[in-house]
Amino acid sequence: MTTQLAKDYITIDEGAQDQLFRRARTANSFTDEPVTEAHVRAIYDLVKWAPTSFNQQPLRVVLVRSPQARARLVEHMWDNNKAKTAGAPLVAVLAADTEFHHELPAQFPVFPEAKDAFFADPEVRRDSAVLNAALQVAYFLMGVRAAGLAAGPMSGFDAVGVAKEFFPDGIHRPLVVMNIGLPGENAWWDRLPRLAYDEVFASV
Amino acid sequence: MTTQLAKDYITIDEGAQDQLFRRARTANSFTDEPVTEAHVRAIYDLVKWAPTSFNQQPLRVVLVRSPQARARLVEHMWDNNKAKTAGAPLVAVLAADTEFHHELPAQFPVFPEAKDAFFADPEVRRDSAVLNAALQVAYFLMGVRAAGLAAGPMSGFDAVGVAKEFFPDGIHRPLVVMNIGLPGENAWWDRLPRLAYDEVFASV
Predict the structure, then answer these.
(1) The overall pTM is greater than 0.90
(2) Which residue of B has its CA nearest to A10?
(3) N or C: which end of chain A has fewer CB within 10 A?
């Protein structure tokens, strides 16, 4: 599945390129094979190294494992996402912690003053938390794929309801709900098109 | 540099794991080795396959190549980012197109009505563009590393000034400025700590 451009310029293993990008697909159904705690620990242990601004690491994740919690989550999903969220071996709610700055002096010890110098304003902090947690959602998705699993990321849910249900402290903003597991029967839609290079990139 | 958890659960090549995550670092200085158009095309050709909500692909990128444009960009960077932005072989401004919905019927032909059904509200559209473009920034960063290059992503810049300078249409929101190249002398800071698994993940 490789391409001439990839042969010429991409230096990671071809199998890894396929597994992470070219052959990977968003799964809409899953087998019953469980996704264990150890899987998730291994994924985090790999992707935690990817960068965030000021090393702020605002991503927080709730793994929805009990049938009761799963049922509560499914209530808040849009209709087209309910069945797959009910059936996935593991579902993760990925959220931005808008009060990440409390951890910042420990996580960014080279300039502990950043907590107050840059992140005192709640609006600045929220925007930074959302941007950086979104980066971490993408890193996590790559980690899921690196573990040989398929991800089904979704933004089609009632974010206010999910926040109230799973983050009652009011300081977290759910960004993505992600189904995780081995792909089941008819797991894929047909591949959708992608924008051409010149529709995305300009040089000045 | 691998770990027992990675050996047990991560199935992509160990070298790729190191190159993308464990050994990769944010570079603060670069060699003079150029980053070509073909490099960037190969990176995009790989990472374009990673998912966005409704396949919306809101990321837009300006590659700042001319000395004049580079000088204009450096003006808007925070002081601590000026020297490295001036010196990097390639600098990319990565932005969210808040009017991505015009392309949506072509990119999401399975439900072209999504353009109006979900993205008529400018605030909903902006939030969606920022979230999904941030995912794509992370995918792009992984692609830079997959090409054997180092990335220096920065959020320390005047976003209003950068938007006016490089996206005068007023519909793009710059998210990250990224230096790209081969790492130069003393390119790395000491590695910063990461949150422990239990500080990030909870199960319900």
Answers:
(1) yes
(2) B147
(3) N
